[in-house]
Amino acid sequence: MLIKSFLMNFSLKQGSFFFSSFSKSKSKILKAKSPFRRPNKRGSIYIKSTKSNLFCTLMDVKEKKVKTSCSLKVPEYDNEFNEKVNPFKRGKLLGEVFGKKTRELGFTEVGIYLDSNMNQARKGFLQVFGRKKIKISFIQLSKAYPHNGCRPSKVRRKKLRTKVKSR
């Protein structure tokens, strides 16, 4: 009884010890930010695909600097049965390697810019990269467009007859 009254008086004097303000201090503890939490780092990935290769570049949005880049030749590819090079499989390997690099650099959210060329490796890359624990905010397909349009086809001229045929 004596101890309980002492604690009640102590809590009233100190303000944040026991009974009176326990719920307040608990909510303050829950709202405090963890020192181990990383801030959300945003980046953009530019993918350029050619007929037989794929180039990926990771840029930081805030600093506007290139952080890392890769191509299809980077990941090691074991050709077990001496088959023809499979770009889809190589794209999957590249997605695995590039996703790992992106996570190591601390990026949590990326936007992907694709060029207009279609490639099987690009499909494999996006399939595997989407499974990584990186949020993809958007995928933008940039089409190649002509600035002045294509050259128009030659206009065929038909010979005009000035004289009327008379029979």
Write the layout of secondary structure elements.
Elements: H1 2-14, H2 22-31, E1 42-49, E2 54-60, E3 66-71, H3 87-104, E4 109-114, H4 120-129, E5 135-141
Helix pairs in contact: 3-4
What does this structure look like?
By secondary structure, the protein is an alpha/beta fold. The chain has a domain at 42-73 and 84-141: Nucleotidyltransferase, domain 5 (2-Layer Sandwich). The protein has 4 helices and 5 strands. A hairpin with a 5-residue loop joins β2 and β3 (66-71). The radius of gyration is 32 Å and the shape is elongated.
Approximate helicity band = 25-40%
The rough form would be described as elongated
- Determine and state the CATH class of the domain at 42-73 and 84-141: Alpha Beta
Strand pairing plus helix content: what structural class?
alpha/beta
The profile of the biggest β sheet is: 5 strands, mixed
GO biological process, one term: translation
Keywords: Mitochondrion, Ribonucleoprotein, Ribosomal protein
InterPro entries: Ribosomal_uS11_sf (IPR036967)
Organism: Cladosiphon okamuranus
